[in-house]
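We were asked to recover a plausible sequence for a given structure. The inputs and outputs are reproduced exactly as logged, with field labels preserved.

PROBLEM: sequence recovery
POSITIONS: 389
GIVEN STRUCTURE:
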């Protein structure tokens, strides 16, 4: 019988990892940093305060990493006005997804060194700039150079440290900075090394002050007041334009949008099917199941939109799509049972909710990116016609 205290701590940690990323589309920097920090400390918290088997939790940890990266990708569809950065973010995200899938299928750790998670830091870099500056000012050359610098200088060394050398940063700090054993609780380490801790905190504060000074004196004047809210400076795509774009996209069900949605949700779901220990479906079955679910719910959504049925509330849309996907998944599970295949009900329910969440957010945010792309294409065409005329 699991300890009640252990269960509560696990519930709080996993709940934080599931709920905090949902704030990323509206508050990218604080929510993105919080998700990154929780990802970094969750293992240590569970190790120090519970007796749970962390070998099993590591599988869930990988799945939760993909989960919050997926929310960050959806956030760039919602918020990013610089199309060069949007394209680069899309490339980096799918590159990492493919690498994660190959790793789960082949179990070769070196693969993650060649498929680093550059997307996460690229996302935070862009959003940090957007706190004070209009990202439309970023040139394609600067965007590409920044992504390359993050890739080579930050992510490749980090991926080597974590996945090839398999070293833990917190353990290394305990051993080499504070001279404490790995299993020592952090509270005792801080108390025993209080002068050094104070010195390190002072050094961090000094670096932050220097960074702020550099920002003020070197970087160009800010374009707008500081705010963590992605909507603080107005939405560049109105609700009417987004709705019109969504209706236009609904007129063509089978196209690039459906292909990307299937690729996006399919890759995430197949990775989940490989890392969750209770999953019983093969990668092919997971891919086929997701394709069927997305194809059918896209057809239903397009049919409703063409008839003017558009739910303004994301919660209402999620609920409606969950019912639709639940019926499709039930039919899929019934077909498996006729073939003598069993399935784990909690895992199926989790996969259903995950697919529904990702599809709902994709359907709401992709039209915003599409509207910006259409607007940029029209502006380019008009500029070309002006020059030609």
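RECOVERED SEQUENCE:
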């Amino acid at each position: 019988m699991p300890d009640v205290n252990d269960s509560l701590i696990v519930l709080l940690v996993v709940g934080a990892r599931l709920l905090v990323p949902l704030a990323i589309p509206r508050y990218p920097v604080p929510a993105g940093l919080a998700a990154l920090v929780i990802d970094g400390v969750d293992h240590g918290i569970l190790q120090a305060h519970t007796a749970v088997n962390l070998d099993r939790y590591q599988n869930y940890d990988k799945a939760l990493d993909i989960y919050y990266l997926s929310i960050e990708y959806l956030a760039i569809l919602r918020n990013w006005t610089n199309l060069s950065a949007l394209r680069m973010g899309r490339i980096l995200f799918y590159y990492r997804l493919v690498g994660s899938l190959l790793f789960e299928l082949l179990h070769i750790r070196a693969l993650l060194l060649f498929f680093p998670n550059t997307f996460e830091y690229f996302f935070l870099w862009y959003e940090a700039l957007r706190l004070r500056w209009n990202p439309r000012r970023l040139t394609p050359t600067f965007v590409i150079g920044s992504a390359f610098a993050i890739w080579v200088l930050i992510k490749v060394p980090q991926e080597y440290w974590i996945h090839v050398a398999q070293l833990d940063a917190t353990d290394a700090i305990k051993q080499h900075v504070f001279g404490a054993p790995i299993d020592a609780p952090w509270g005792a380490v801080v108390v025993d090394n209080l002068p050094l801790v104070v010195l390190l905190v002072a050094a961090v504060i000094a670096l932050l002050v220097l960074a702020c000074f550099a920002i003020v004196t070197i970087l160009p004047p800010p374009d707008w007041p500081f705010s963590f809210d992605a909507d603080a400076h107005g939405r560049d795509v109105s609700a009417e334009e987004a709705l019109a774009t969504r209706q236009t996209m609904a007129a063509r069900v089978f196209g690039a949008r459906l292909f990307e949605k299937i690729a996006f949700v399919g890759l995430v779901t197949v990775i989940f099917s490989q890392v969750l220990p209770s999953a019983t479906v093969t990668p092919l079955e997971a891919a086929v199941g997701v394709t069927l679910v997305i194809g059918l719910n896209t057809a239903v959504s397009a049919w409703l939109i063409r008839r003017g049925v558009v739910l303004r509330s994301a919660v209402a849309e999620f609920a409606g799509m969950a019912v639709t996907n639940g019926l499709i998944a039930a039919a899929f599970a019934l077909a498996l049972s006729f073939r003598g295949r069993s399935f784990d009900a909690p895992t199926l329910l989790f996969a259903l909710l995950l697919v529904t969440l990702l599809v709902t957010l994709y359907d709401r945010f992709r039209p915003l990116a599409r509207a910006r792309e259409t607007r940029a294409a029209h502006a380019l065409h008009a500029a070309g016609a002006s020059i030609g005329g």
